[in-house]
Amino acid sequence: MCSSDLRDQRTALARALERLNEIATRDELTGLPNRRAMGELLLTETARHARLKAPLSLAVIDIDRFKQINDRLGHAAGDAVLRGFAHRLESELRGADVLARWGGEEFLLLLPGTDAEQALQAVERLREGLRLQPFDDVEPGMRVSFSAGVGLCLGQGDIDSALERADRALYRAKAAGRDRSEPA
């Protein structure tokens, strides 16, 4: 085998490995980090913030009445809403913030260097901004809202508890009428 064949094989292998890494860490539909990638990032960020003694907040975000969108307009429309939702929120984030698709119509927002009150304000800003951006490409005049639970993560040993607290706050927001954020 000549050296150019070996070089071509190495290049092809490097591309395949890069693609496998992308598949393992990115949500195919939205392009956002997936649950696995966010789990790894949470471990890294909580350790870093513990060393810096800096706050770290999380928000569990759920698109309101998403099942009705799928049922009424079909799954292609639901997919378009998920893509548009992810793009709209991500475009409003600070550089350090990370939005991931957590599952279905649920997203997790990581807010480094942000205390619980600042995180709640940031999520409210996202919620209000989303209200101003119709999903005309899905259905003319269509508005999408979300509910969120927002809370502080106290370090690596607190990740699961912080997620649970934020998730309970999310369900309080939904029970209180949706289209709102609740502190954990």
Rg (CA only): 19 Å
Shape: flat
Q: What is the helical fraction, as a range of percent?
A: 40-55%
Quantity of strands, as a count: 5
**Average predicted local confidence, pLDDT:** 93
Report the structural category: alpha+beta
Helix-strand pattern: HHEHHEEHEHE
The portion of residues forming beta strands comes to: 15-25%
- End-to-end C-alpha gap: 62 Å
Note the total helix count: 6
Report low-confidence residues grouped into runs of 5 or more.
none
Strand order of the largest sheet: 2-3-1-4-5
Sheet with most strands? 5 strands, mixed
Describe this structure in words.
This protein is of the alpha+beta class. The chain is 54% helix and 17% strand. The protein has helices spanning 3-25, 35-52, 66-73, 75-91, 116-131, 159-175, and strands at 56-63, 98-103, 106-112, 146-152, 181-183. The chain has a 5-stranded mixed beta sheet, sandwiched between helices. The longest helix has 23 residues, at 3-25. The chain is flat, with a radius of gyration of 19 Å. The protein starts with a helix and ends with a strand.
